[in-house]
Amino acid sequence: MTPADTGRAGRNRYCLLPRLAAAACSAFWLASCARPGAITARGREPDLRVALVAGAEAVRVAGEGRVLVEGSQDFVLDPGEVLRALPDGDGVRFEGQPNTRSDRLRVRSADPSSFVTVNGRPFRGSIEVYSRAGSVFAVNVVGLEAYLRGVVNAEMGTLTGRDLAALEAQAIVSRTYAIRNRGRNREDGYDVSAGVADQAYLGVSRETEHGNRAVANTTGLVITYRGELASVFYHSTCGYSTASPEEAFRSIRPVSYLQPVADNRPSGGYYCDISPRFRWTVEWDGPELRDILRRTLPAVVGVDGAAVDQVHDVRSHAVGRSRRVTELRIQVGGGEIPVFGPDIRRVLETPEGRPLGSNAIEIAPVRSDAVIERLKVSGAGWGHGVGMCQWGAIGRARAGHSAHTIITTYFPGTSIERWY
Questions:
Q1: 201: enclosing H helix or E strand
Q2: Rg of the chain taking only CA atoms, in angstroms
Q3: DSSP three-state, residue 419
Q4: How far apart are CA 241 and CA 392, in angstroms?
Q5: Is residue 285 classed as helix, strand or coil in its secondary structure?
Q6: Considering the chain, what percentage of its residues have pLDDT values greater than 70?
Q7: Number of H helices, E strands in the chain
Q8: Per-residue b/e over 359-373, b at no fewer than 16 CB within 10 Å?
Q9: Which of these, 115, 134, 137, lies nearest to 126 by C-alpha position?
Q10: Side-by-side strand order, sheet with 47-56
Q11: Of the candidates 221, 98, 144, which has an alpha carbon nearest to the alpha carbon of residue 83?
């Protein structure tokens, strides 16, 4: 997973340009690596609290072997026995077993060689189940190195031994992110989520020999800048160059190690041109584009959807240091609507309902009677573009680069240190 492109509201504001009186102003959104929480002291491996389920109606808990359940009453689940945890006031209980109600249920395997499953997926460590505001949370309490075994392949896919340096680089970046973000969601009872808002984490089912080896080879290693943990980002495919944060995010504090890095291979081409998302196109017909914008502009920008009567033009108005579009202008009957940064990807939703792949785009409208009849967008890369390019890391590993070289290329000026 790539860290999310959206976050807390910032101070800058924008609104529709003149001639569209019905427009509403909307706040910029901040997207950045979260502020550090409880950063672990050097010298010991921390546990991490990972939200596998957050805010659900129920969650299924079972075990490959015998499972110990600790709560108001302790009991044992037989292998394969499945229980459904439900909210019960301020606590939780298992469906059909009112005597199991507890403020918090703790579930762990009685056999070190088997695992607890949550909604059918096995995880190392233990599981805590509790409720917040009438919904269920399931949190995996797991050692950081065991957590990384479930992250590296979920993020990078199943790779081979020739890609080991890229897997090692991912392990170091992911470890840095996890430690820096410990405690970020403390009020809700966990550190990070298991989804793409933080890092994809799929537990034991996604572990592989090479991924586990990459984690073991890099145990305790993190990325630092002037002795402090670095704010790290990564994405699928840069397309030709990584991006500067201001091209992708809002109001992020500039740092010297987050800057555009060219992905050119000396022999020609790009390290990430092996990615299936290296180049792509999306097309909309006129009515389809209008209907999408009527839905996305109110949700993302705060503009009244009724203002999108006809779409006369969509054009790039400003680009950033890596030539990504940082401001888009959409011309409708009442004026021009500016769309900034990561909002571009959400506003120009694909006909299938997905965000646009990246901001590295070329726009080609076809007009009839001054109204867009068809719009084609040609794009490069996939994701926000900041930090490490995952497919670029794979290409560099195959070219013989070490994990250290990969990291210090994508995060220039940083160091790799052993945190524990």
A1: none
A2: 24
A3: coil
A4: 10
A5: strand
A6: 90
A7: 8, 26
A8: bbbebebeeeeeebe
A9: 115
A10: 75-77, 67-70, 105-109, 126-132, 135-143, 47-56, 192-193
A11: 98
Amino acid at 62: A
- Side chain identity at residue 210, one-letter code: H
What pTM value is reported for the model?
Answer: 0.89
Place of tokens 């007009």: 367
State residue 41's pLDDT score.
Answer: 60
**Which residues have a Cβ under 8 Å from the Cβ of 195 and sit 6 or more positions away?**
1, 201
Got the DSSP string for 18-52? Answer: TT-TT---EEEE---PPPP-SPPPTTSPPEEEEEE
Dihedral sign computed on CA atoms, order 212, 215, 217, 219: negative
In the block, residue with structure tokens 């009515």: 287
- Tens of pLDDT, residue by residue over 193-210, are 999 899 999 999 999 999
Instruction: State pLDDT tens for residues 286-322.
Output: 999 999 999 999 999 999 999 999 999 999 999 999 9
Helix axes 144-156, 390-398, angle to 10 degrees: 90
pLDDT tens string 340-392:
998 999 999 999 999 999 999 999 999 999 999 999 999 999 999 999 999 99
Asked if 263 contacts 236 with a C-beta cutoff of 8 angstroms, the reply is no
| Cα four-point dihedral sign 147, 148, 150, 151 | positive
Closest CA to 410 of 278, 233, 154: 233
Question: Per the structure block, which two tokens stand in for 384?
Answer: 């926000």
